[in-house]
Amino acid sequence: MSLVLSIVGFVIVGLLGLFFYFAYFVRKLGTPTKGARIDKRVRPNEALVVIDVQEDFTRNTGKTAFDPEVRDAALDEINRMISVARSSGHEVVFVRNVFRDWPVIQLMKLVANGIGTPGREGLKFDRNLEIRDAPVFEKSIGDTFSNPDFESFLARREIGRLTLVGLDACHCVQLTAKGALSRGYDVEIREPATLTATPAKWTSLKQDLTKAGAAIA
């Protein structure tokens, strides 16, 4: 009897450990980073940040697939903004998400057909995106500031104002906005150039971002 109880106890402890292991990485995905505040007096420049406009997400055919008409309208607006930013002499950077943590990869394979995991053709940027030779930064969680190369690039180019577009507005876009706001950047999110698979959440998130200092246009 005591052996049975020991085995049951071992299994319960193992399952709890596994649960908290997965929970840690899921929480990490959705937590904005924090960093040192910038001095905006020496950051006069602007950048357009295009987030996660990859075919795994833009052309997903699952239950979270975007309406093609809505998607194409957002892509057109993103490309229009890229053109305007370039003609105005502003930096344009692209962000690509690849899930790298093993628990997250397994989770994505289990619930989302593996989108965003290493080795997939869909990790490429959307076929209609005007990338050219712009800088590209990879991240594996929601907030783009999790990649220190991104923050270093902004410092070198003396950038203090970010305009964010792309997807998902309720995840990586808003998390990057919070990461930027906590560091003292001016942040604007261009709504017509974003997509979200959970539009019902966007209204309250938008209010939170506005209170935190972001501009929503």
Question: How would you describe what is shown here?
Answer:
By secondary structure, this protein is α/β, with parallel strands linked by helices. Helix content is 46%, strand content 18%. It has seven helices and six strands. It has a six-stranded parallel β-sheet with strand order 3-2-1-4-5-6. Helix 6 packs parallel to helix 7 (199-212). The chain is globular, with a radius of gyration of 19 Å. The model has no long low-confidence stretch (mean pLDDT 92).
Write out key terms for the chains shown:
7 helices, single chain, globular, alpha/beta, six-stranded parallel beta sheet, 217 residues
Give a short summary of the structure.
The chain crosses the membrane at residues 6-26. By secondary structure, the chain is α/β, with parallel strands linked by helices. It contains seven helices and six strands.
Topology of this protein?
Blueprint: H1 2-29, E1 45-51, H2 55-58, H3 68-87, E2 91-97, H4 102-111, E3 136-139, H5 148-156, E4 159-167, H6 169-183, E5 186-195, H7 199-212, E6 215-216
Parallel strand pairs: 1-2, 1-4, 2-3, 4-5, 5-6
Pfam families: Isochorismatase
Keywords: Hydrolase, Membrane, Transmembrane, Transmembrane helix
GO molecular function, one term: hydrolase activity
